[in-house]
Structures
1.
Amino acid sequence: MNLKSIIEEIKNNKELPNLQFEIKERTENFTKHLFYTLFDKNTPVESSLKELQEEFEALADLVCWKPNTPCRNIWEEYLLKLPEILMKLNEDAKAIAYNDPAANSLEEVYLGYPGFYAIAIYRLSHELYKFGLPLVPRLMSECAHRITGTEINPGAQIGVPFFIDHATGVVIGETAVIKNNVKIYQGVTLGALYVDRKMRNTKRHPTIEENVTIYANATILGGDTTIGANSIIGGNVWLTKSVPANSMVSHTPQIKIKNTSNNG
């Protein structure tokens, strides 16, 4: 096979005419710019919002390839949501600083806590998801996933405040519902019992009621699974059934400790 035939073969196997990696790169830049605009003291708000509008419209032109999809018009409505999103995120940050004895300042939370960054990108992408903007919200969530190791689908519904400690390995599915004042730790999965395309429009992920704490590496699965308010879910717990309010659920492994020292 000569070079010309190789080139033609590659061209023929590029099956998706709208698959442009420029979309991913532009989304990453937009996400970073949006985060800086909301939080960074030295980023001018007025000029940045104008630039963000231009970046958003360029993105919209790339992702809204279906006819009669007015994606550009979303920006004005999204802009109105930004102050409310910022207020929610400030509440999230304060909750983290209040609950974590290792936090020395609010600035440390904003700058150094991967859980806060993951929550911030979730809240910013969730509103675009609600508007029905294709592809961009998911790519925004992947920005946070890559940086923090936390995957929060933009379709999830999450109350305020929300606290993710340590962050790495957390997975929150598209139809998960998390009420106010929930704390979760690294490695927690809020997932589906199984993957089936036919379940696309059904609730597949659990509901977590208010004031629940879920410790490291717990796995909670299923759309009918509800964790009742004020409950504590211990580390490494595996749940596929609902838990009533005010419960404490624990996993008790068998651990043996043997003294191997030789005393003669």
2.
Amino acid sequence: MMKYIRSGLFALCVWMLSGMALANPNNIVMARNLHNDAQLAERASIPVLIIFTSPGCAYCERVMHNYLIPMQRNRDYARKVLIRRVDISSDSALTDFNGKVTTGQHYATALKVRLTPTIIVFTPNGVPAADPLVGLGPEDYYGGYLDAAIDAGLAKMHPAAH
């Protein structure tokens, strides 16, 4: 009986983590409150992947549609990483990992994100886990680069397991 309760709770946690991603699996959820997202990620013991995008960025669209959207649809990745998106030109309110209200534009500037797409994997306390992935790069290797960045986030959170 406990086995079924645990699997039900795990399914509920995955559903909560994916949030709007389950409602529309063809989009990457725009970050609004990274502090709350980090709390969800902390409870699930997973890192937070943020793709920084800009309007009209064709490479951003390719990365999202060819890599990130398929990842968020995959249960194995849903258990490994929480995916969010930040528009580097946005003036909309964004709460950062520390609970401070800023904008996508100011947050990207603080992280020195100038080119899009840029992907950074963070531990739930807002610390980058690996070097940023800037641009699209060779598509034959890009999935491997993403996996390595996610694995770096998991390793920083669970050093004994990696």
3.
Amino acid sequence: MKLFAHFLLAALVGVAANASFAADEHPAAPAAAAAKPKPDLAKGEAAFTAKACASCHNADGNSAIAANPKLAEQHPEYILKQLEEFKSGKRKNAIMSGMAATLTDDEMRDIAWFVASKKEKLGFAKEKDLVALGEKIYRGGIADRQVPACAGCHSPNGAGIPAQYPRLAGQHAEYVASELTQFRDGVRLNSIQMTGVAAKLNDREIKAVADYIAGLR
């Protein structure tokens, strides 16, 4: 009986040792990373006001200056990405880089969700002689130059795809044309896809598609 108890004790010690070894080899998974705080729209509005964002984009995100983008109803993930890239230097703009440099991560997140929650005031096309060309490029691309249809990523009505492609519908034509030109000329470098597309467009085509986008609903 004593001999049996001795073997039983040895077996139990071995099991414990093996369990300890296994725990060392496969440690418990670390606790899940703390969830990121949810956007605070009230704080976003306060930061948007305090940082004078409204001076260029208006209090409701509907810029009255055609050179400055409308931010209302834009996908907040896209706005946040742009702010982060202005701050990091990946996207160049003397004014926005300076503004973003003063923002904390929380402020950028809150501002993005606040201004995106505002209703966009849609625009309209002005260049009647170019609307047909703009529509053709936006909806069908330019096959012989392998220019893809804008609608493929930004959707037929310009709504875009949340967290992937920005909303374009109703955006100022002047702003869109300026950004397309910067992509084409290698000034704006934070989207390989857009650099490739814009590189194949001439000034007239850029103006046409930008004007068509302004009138999208």
